[in-house]
Amino acid sequence: MEQSYELLPEQFQINPSLPIYEQFVDAIRGRIVTGLIPPGSRLPSVRELAAGRSVNPTTAARTYQELERIGLIVTRRGQGTFVTLEEAVIAEARKTIMRKAVLEFKIIAESLGLSAEQMLNFDKEDSNDRQ
Amino acid sequence: MTDNNRLSVPYNEPVAVECQDVRLTVKKKMILDGISFQIPTGSITGLLGPNGAGKSSLLRILAGLTLPDSGSAQIFGKPSGVDRLGVLSMLPDRANLPGWLTVEQWLGFAQGIYPDWDADKAEQLLLQLSVSTEVLISAMSRGEEARLQLLTCLSRKAPLIMLDEPFTGVDLISRERIASAVVSELADGARTFLIATHDIREMELLFDRLILMGEGKIQGIEDVDTLRRSGKSVESRYREVFA
Amino acid sequence: MSAFRTLINLEYSRYGPARFSKKQRSLTVMVLFSLLLLLGMYLPGFNTSQRSPFITVALLLWTVSVGISFLHMASFPGQRNRDWVLTFPHSRLTLLYAKGASLLRHSLNLTLLLYIEAIVLYCLSTFTGRYTPLPAGELIYTLTAYVMFILVLLPIAVVFGLLASLIMRPGRVARVLLLPYSILWMLPFILIGLLNSQALGIYDMQYTAPSYIILYTAALLVVGWPACYFLMPRIAVNGLRQMGERSIPAAASSKAESVRKPEKDRHLSARSQSPFVTLYKLDSSRLQQMEKHQAVRILKLAAPVIAIAMFYFTSGNLNAMQSAIRLPFIFPVLFGSFWMLLRNSFERKQLPWWLGFPQSRLRLLLSGIAAVWVTVMRVNVVLGVSAVVGLLAGLAAGKSSFHEMTQYVFWLFFSFLVYTLALTLALGLLQISYYLMRSRALSLLFLPVAFAVPLQSNLINTYMFPASYSSGWHPDWALLGWTALLGLPFAVCCILAGSKYYHLVLMQKNEAVRTKQA
């Protein structure tokens, strides 16, 4: 299958102070969920991923292990690694991202001494003002 | 991956390199002061430290170019020395390949000299590292020659590869090419890399273990993953130890 | 086996003819050939009897083969590909044998050239009636005997040169061996003086007859070859291993010294206003570094003693004194000239810095010359004074009369001046090399200059001193004066011309590259 997509965007910045495979997992999950990497696409090999990003192959391998554990990718023996075709898994991954985003949102709100609702109301008023 | 602090290799995992209390004194100056560490097979270890820390001397001992005053250095369970040169492939610091030869001639010689030479691999690396074959080695730029030196190291099947400052005076693109060639070599897990460098940024994503050396002593042995879990990068750890 | 062959080829290619184009190769060979032929024909002494061409070639080959192999081994630790070579997965002995075999191949190439040369010389000399031709049978006998001798000698010469790695090593044994080693190496140059003396007639002695030569060959085979076989593993283990280690001590010691010294140096440079003086100090610091070598220190102590002894013992004998007064100054002068000749190849890495100094090129050249000149002259003055002391001791012991003694001192002084002039001229003339780097054709002209350097003692013996002395002999001051009058301005021209093109020394490497690619 032709690869008409990128596993990670070219300008993807790695933060060297955090586990790299987690950053990879987050980024690739996001791209699968948003459809930038369509279901059923064939993923580059561990070696290609590692060489392309100049990271330790163990990092790349762990990224795939983690994605496989979530069920987002499947390895078919002798053929390679593919994005899952199961909509339910992708939907679940979508929820994970949403939960994480909401959680971060709430944390920020809390640090400002606000509730999530107050933040959202502020956004509404603010956009009305700007118009 | 081991998580304990000493980071010694578990009993069942094969050890690629092992040093025990290696000491070296040259003209009353202590160069290596009781160096002990282990490197598991298949890992890529960064030997980091400022200039003059003794990194090169340590690698020279491992390659059998220098004899330690005391202590033992073992490569795959046997004492290092000239007869272990067959299982390790070393890129020496600040050395040049025979400058009077063209790349092609040199590769011809290398094939005869190294019993474990892999000509197909060399062909493939010529493309990957974009090294041209008709040039005289002495006419190459530093970056080009560094790539050729790495090619020479990687075209062997030796299970241990030691690179001593592979980036000195090498341009950005060559650095990236070298790093990525090292990675694709590593992927099958059959090779062990020990890379001495003070250019941390190019290699920091590559290492899975660090040996921090300063003033002839080991200042720390780290598992990079554990380091990142605690929110530190290789660079910040390096600064912590040496700044 | 094939790995061994590859190693030999790699080592051979280091100085191999393949590095030059066919045209350059044949041109070099032709120039070398005709030059040596001229030397053989016109320098008396080289070619006085039927055997002399072959004896000379054998002696020359010894020094040259030892020299090639010595220089290779001595320069190997400084070569930037050393670590690569030393990490080849082969035993040190294999590496050493590969080196030896490739050096032997170079020596054999040279032997071919020189032996043909000797035959041509022989033919030319018989044609011109210098000596009568040998009967065919004896000629073939002589040719075969000498060829066999040379072929058996060459491997020994190569191994002897490889010993450099043991000799150059710091240590007590090496220190003791250095003197006999260099004497053995330079033996032919010492012997040339003896060979030339017609009184001895070595060329016609029975000991140089083919049958004796065959005997020597057998002796070398029985004693020399096993000795080499025995030595090779020792050179491999002690010499090559040492070389792998050497870079660290060198770096460490220079570091340690630079830590200790700066105070003194800063003091010096602050006081010396003139940049020339500073440059001179920089240049001579290199030579002083060599003087610190323990072997050199021993030599410094030994040389005056040897000079005193030599002149004491020869002061009773007029004939011996004739040879003695020529000897003491030769070696320092030769050393100085060789150093100037080879300096650039030793210091290739520093040259870009040197040329980057904001000083005129002329000044750079002059400071380099001055450093060598002063060093050599210092040694020669010490040797001269020691010689005079020896002579005075001879007088005191009643070995010579006062009249004889003053005459000897007079001759010694003449010899001193002759060698001073020779040194000055040689150092000056050698600077023309930079001018000659302008083109390939010109650089071939440097060959005769380079040749004149090692042969200067022969030239001096031929032209400056009479073939036989009598007690009433007076040195030829006029000849010395004329040589100085003509030679010195020429040397100055050479320096001026050289300084204009000093920078070409940096281009050398690149030029070789370009021609290769073309």
From TrEMBL, chain A:
SMART domains: HTH_GNTR (SM00345). Transmembrane segments: none annotated. The keyword Transcription applies. It comes from the Bacteria. InterPro entries: Tscrpt_reg_HTH_GntR, WH-like_DNA-bd_sf, WH_DNA-bd_sf. Coiled coil: none annotated. Residues 18-86 form the HTH gntR-type domain. The keyword Transmembrane helix does not apply. It holds the Pfam family GntR. Keywords: DNA-binding, Transcription, Transcription regulation. This is HTH gntR-type domain-containing protein. It comes from Paenibacillus helianthi.
UniProtKB/TrEMBL annotation, chain B:
Pfam families: ABC_tran (PF00005). PROSITE patterns: ABC_TRANSPORTER_2. CDD domains: ABC_DR_subfamily_A. Residues 17-240 form the ABC transporter domain. Keywords: ATP-binding, Nucleotide-binding. This is ABC transporter. It comes from Paenibacillus helianthi. It comes from the Bacteria.
From TrEMBL, chain C:
It comes from the Bacteria. The keyword Protein transport does not apply. The keyword Cytoplasm does not apply. Keywords: Membrane, Transmembrane, Transmembrane helix. The chain crosses the membrane at residues 27-46, 52-74, 108-127, 139-164, 176-197, 209-232, 295-313, 325-342, 363-396, 408-430, 442-465, 477-499. This is ABC transporter permease. It comes from Paenibacillus helianthi. The lineage of its organism: Bacteria, Bacillati, Bacillota, Bacilli, Bacillales.
